[in-house]
Amino acid sequence: MTDKVVIFVTAGNRREARRIAKRLVNSRLAACVNLTAPVESVYWWQRKVESSREVLLIIKTRRGLFPRVEAEIRKLHTYKTPEIICLPIIEGSADYLKWLDDSVTPADGSRDR
After folding, report:
1. What is the pLDDT of residues 22-66, one digit of tens each?
2. How many CA atoms lie within 13 A of 104 on its CB side?
3. CA atoms 80, 83, 84, 85: torsion sign
């Protein structure tokens, strides 16, 4: 098991998704964010089934940074209840995981490792 995670977030449009992605990467809270679009989401909202086209963000970071990542997403997101789901990366390429680790800020906010 690693301390690396993937966080899924859906956004209503590419502009919002790109704004969130750039903020997370520029602030070194995420090593990489993939944007996939369009995705069609079918979900319960206000007692009825809804369907909408969205952009899926796939965010790669460290588990210890999740609270800060979530806080940034909530600041920038337009949804009242945004999807913010964190899944562990159990295994991965050693080179990729090292790159991921080197690309994000330590959970304590320091730049020194």
Report:
1. 999 999 999 999 999 899 999 999 999 999 999 999 999 999 999
2. 28
3. positive
- Residue 28 is given by DSSP the state T
Please give the structure tokens belonging to residue 94: 């050693």
For residue 109, count other CB atoms closer than 10 A to its CB: 9
- Decide: pTM greater than 0.90: yes
How far is it, in rounded angstroms, from Cα 112 to Cα 22? 23
Beta strands in 1-113 (DSSP E): 4-11, 32-45, 48-62, 84-88
CATH fold label, 4-103: Alpha-Beta Plaits (3.30.70)
Picking from 95, 72, 82, 77, the residue whose alpha carbon sits closest to that of residue 4 is 95
Domains of the chain, residue spans: 4-103
